[in-house]
Amino acid sequence: MNKLIKKITANNGGIFTGKGTNTYLIGKEDITLIDPGPNIPEHIDKILSVGKNKIKRILVTHTHTDHSPAALPISKKLNIPMFGRLVDRESQWEDETFIPDNVLSHGDEILTDEYSLETIHTPGHASNHLCFYIKEIKCLLTGDHIMDGSTVVIAPPDGNMTEYINSLRLLEEYEINYFAPGHGNIMKEPTKTINSIIRHRLSRESKVFRCVEKKQNSNIDQLLLLVYDDVPEMLHPIAKMSLLAHLIKLEEDGKLKNYENTYSLS
């Protein structure tokens, strides 16, 4: 990893978080803390130890409970501002403790003598999701927009599949050398990764359409068994969230219709 970036992984591994949430410290003398993670005392202590009283601000990619709860206690302890934004729609994953001192919008920049961070609004996984682009080293901190070794869950109503795919395509406009994801390891070949994710999502969408075509007037539980027959059954509750997101997208695209929670071709 570039000397400008330090990574600390929280001890909150699990089915959604992999080995844990990655917290990043950007800079040497003027440090920006990105995604402080869960409010685990040991994790916070390590952040403060590595930061050596040089952390000047906290940025949050999104407000899910594995990414932002440590922001408030660190902000209070160091008397530094929190940057981010709140969700636009209802979400079951929210950290209610995070209220940004500064609301970030697409294109906003954090400028220091050491580096610059450009805000890229990437809704999809969450309506308030942000990625942060370090121009000097062409690194994108992706939060949960792109994760290493795991498919991103899109959970409506706050998660939105159309927005997610559009946000992936938006990243193709940036010159990126590598991703620093919210979970997992540094990811190289960013263009290949983006294209692969889009292909996977559109392939799954096509399968959803074919399954509805084959079994008209099916509900989501019936379709789940058909669409995700290649996924272990223990993961079906998670897959159901993304299936709903695909169904909503197909309905919005005018390809499916939903009548009393059963789906058929338009």
Walk me through what this model shows.
The chain has 266 residues and is an alpha/beta fold. It folds into two domains: 5-188, Metallo-beta-lactamase, Chain A; 201-265, Arc Repressor Mutant, subunit A (Orthogonal Bundle). 30% of the residues lie in helices and 21% in strands. The strands form three sheets. It has a six-stranded mixed β-sheet with strand order 1-2-3-4-5-6. Strands 7-8-9-10-11-12 form a six-stranded mixed β-sheet, with no helix packed on it. The protein is elongated. It starts with a strand and ends with a strand. The mean pLDDT is 96.
The largest sheet is: 6 strands, mixed
Level-2 CATH architecture of the largest domain: 4-Layer Sandwich
Count of separate structural domains = 2
Question: What is the approximate shape?
Answer: elongated
The CATH class of the largest domain turns out to be: Alpha Beta
Let me know the CATH homologous superfamily of the largest domain: Ribonuclease Z/Hydroxyacylglutathione hydrolase-like
Helical fraction:
25-40%
Can you describe this structure in just a few lines?
With 266 residues, this protein is an alpha/beta fold. The protein is built from six helices and 14 strands.
List the SSEs and their pairings.
Layout: E1 5-9, E2 22-26, E3 31-34, H1 41-51, E4 55-59, H2 71-78, E5 82-84, E6 102-103, E7 109-111, E8 116-121, E9 130-134, E10 139-143, H3 161-171, E11 178-181, E12 187-188, H4 190-214, H5 220-227, H6 236-252, E13 256-259, E14 262-265
Parallel strand pairs: 3-4, 4-5, 5-6, 10-11
Antiparallel strand pairs: 1-2, 2-3, 7-8, 8-9, 9-10, 11-12, 13-14
Helix pairs in contact: 3-4, 4-6, 5-6
